[in-house]
Amino acid sequence: MPGDEIEVPKELREFMFEEAEETILGQKNGALKQYRYGNLHIREYDDKFLVHTDKVDPRVNPIGHLVYDAPEVLIGIACGIFTGLTTATKNSNKNSNKNFIANVLASSLMSGYLAYDLTKKMKKHLE
Fold this sequence. Notes:
By secondary structure, the chain is α+β, with helices and mostly antiparallel strands. The protein has two domains: 6-53, no CATH class; 70-126. It has three helices and five strands; from the N terminus they run E-E-E-E-E-H-H-H. It has helices spanning 62-68, 71-91, 97-126; strands spanning 6-9, 21-22, 33-37, 40-44, 48-53. A hairpin with a 3-residue loop joins strand 4 (40-44) and strand 5 (48-53). It is elongated.
């Protein structure tokens, strides 16, 4: 099932595919490096590799990857944008320009992170 991770001890380094490409795409989760090989997402730690299969390769279809493999990121971004627009519309004439921008950014970041975190916990609970 996509999302399930397999732990591979680092002693079996020959398991690593030569065609695997180092990437910044994906959550590192404390890994030293991460790689992609097709739909495989490989995280390298000091003593092991953690490997899982994504439904969609983000290098080929980034939006599809967000929808199917990382909906928490998409929901966090959407909530942040929605909150920012709502805050900007409601408070456009109430604050100085400096406070206005700070309020919009703070509310956007907070709601985006909370939506991301809640969705990630729900996703983990449902797996």
